[in-house]
Amino acid sequence: MSRVDHMDVAAYALGVLDAQDMERFEEHLASCWACAAELETMVPVVGLLSDIDAESVTALEQTHSNPILLDRTLVAMRTHRRRARFRQILATAAAVVVFGGVTGVVFSNLADGGTAPPPVAGPTLGTLEPPNSRPGNPGDPGQGGTEQEGKQVNATDPETGVQATFFLDSKDFGTNVAFTLAKLPGPRECRLVVVRKDASTEIISSWAVPPDGYGTISNPQRLALSAATSSKLDDVKHFQVEQVDSKGVGTPLVTVPAN
């Protein structure tokens, strides 16, 4: 077999031979222990040489007969590989620059051996509803806070000047009452009385008023309380805030109708 046939080992290993040459070389390989041994040594580096085409193999074959051409070829290959490597580094660096513009903090923390900061949730656009859309007096329960449930009733006594705002909410157990009072001077003791339609009464709350009172010049803060009665709202005639003397006798301060 010719010397050229022996040089087909590299081309065969790289799979660049055509079908006819591959068949001819395999016939040669079956009887040539030298080519078989050379082919075995080339198996581990086939992956490294897989990017060399047939023209490169032909050029390499020619260099064996021309040492000057061999040197030039090796220099050219090394230059080509350096340039390819340099282009790869530039491409990688460009990717890092683009990506680092967004995640520079993450890379910095990783370089320092730290942990990347947790993602920060961005603002959510939406419409915030006011806590209370019910129209009413500024001092009503729920103004600037949680909206009160039930029917709102406002009342002011023409003689005492006491102002009251009630929220009456019918429940299975009876009636829930939330109320505020203003223009209520002190000191005094007061109570809330339920007056039913059958003329019966029930005291459902009592409290003490300090000297500065509530909803006054000395103390602008309104008094806010809540109470409950077992009476159904349909059975109630009105609610009455009373001042209580030392003998337990009540004097009406303001009356709030139930219906």
Automatic annotation (TrEMBL):
Which residues span the membrane?
89-111
Q: Where is this region: Disordered?
A: 117-153
UniProt keywords (A-Z) are: Membrane, Transcription, Transcription regulation, Transmembrane, Transmembrane helix
Q: Superkingdom, according to UniProt? A: Bacteria
A Pfam family this chain is assigned to: zf-HC2
User: Does the record's keyword annotation contain ATP-binding?
Assistant: no
Query: What sequence ranges are listed for the domain Putative zinc-finger?
Result: 10-35
Sorted alphabetically, which InterPro entries does this protein's record hold?
Anti_sigma_zinc_sf (IPR041916), Znf_put (IPR027383)
According to UniProt, the name of this protein is: Zf-HC2 domain-containing protein
Task: Name the species this protein comes from.
Answer: Micromonospora radicis
